[in-house]
Amino acid sequence: MSSRRGKIMGKASSLTEREQGVITALVAEGHSLRVIADRLGGSRSVTVVRNYLKCPEQYGKRGPNQNAGKMTPYLRRKIENVLKTKPFSTAGQVQAGILSARAKSVSVQTVRRVIRNEHIWKKCKKTPHLQDRHRQARIKFVLDHHWKREEWRDVVFTDEKKWNLDGPDGLKFYWAGLEDEPAVCLSRVYGGQSLMVWGAINGEGKLALLFTKDYYSGGQTAAKYVEMLDKSRVIVKAKETLGYFKFMQDGAASHRAKITMDWLQCNNVEVLDWPALSPDLNPIENVWGQLTRQVYGGCKQYSNVKELRKAVEDAWEKMDDCYVRDLYDSMPKRIIEVALAQGKKCRF
After folding, report:
1. CB under 8 Å to 22, separation ≥6 — which residues?
2. Structural domains of the chain, count
3. pTM summary value
4. Comparing C-alpha atoms, which of 347, 327, 333 is closest to residue 202?
5. CA distance 241 to 39
6. What is the rounded end-to-end Cα distance, in angstroms, of the chain?
7. What average pLDDT does the segment 179-201 reach?
8. Which domain does 100 fall in, by range?
9. Inter-residue contact 53 to 27 (CB < 8 Å)
10. 248 phi and psi, to 5 degrees?
């Protein structure tokens, strides 16, 4: 009895093309549903035969979701509002938020379907923790530097970036079929070996991409930083391109050291008084982002430092100077946004 019950309760497969042909032929001969079901070997019930004959052309084809009509534009707006205020909410929490707003009842499955169809999961961007003193310094900076685009093009922006063999972090996501073998990524301590790169851009485009290993080994000190600037002749190149310019560097200890400031002064370089924790104001951060997408696209990993260096150099060479100039043109907007946000981070 238990085996028969399990057979009845299990979901039967759809009618085969042969079975559909037999049913059509027997109906044409005038046989009853019971006789047709018996002629199929007893594996098909009268109900199955009846359901097929209701609409043979549409048999086996999935029709429109009958619950789709329950999701009204009003409910979609409610879901959107909940996700805007609480973007980390689960489908159940979104449903609870809709019900608390006295909206029409809707199932968790429907909410989940709408979220998946109209939203994507995105990794949160990291941003520095701005304290009040940082915001005040940023406000002062934007008020003192309400410049036009032409004035910003006279600034040389610089920054350092570390490149790992395994990519910028250990979080790698991908879409996979249900029957696909799982993809495997290499896992090495701290992302394997790495390269430290110093980059500079100006209002005309790319200026310099320096691999610090070519100039010194170990951690950066003020003396090593000055030696790199001197040997690379990056300051000379900037003067040849722009003539007079302002030099932007972050507040790293080696950058603010007396030996560094004395060397820049001796070379007649005006240093821009840059506020701390302000990567959103530095357009070279966007350059790094563009290079990262090129170097690590498709979760690309590298076997050795030489291979990684070649990829970084190629991506730098392929980057259009027009892209860099567009970033410079965005500087007035960045300044205005930070001013309107009272020193908080801008969208750039």
Report:
1. 36, 39, 40
2. 3
3. 0.65
4. 327
5. 90
6. 69
7. 70
8. 68-118
9. yes
10. -105, 130
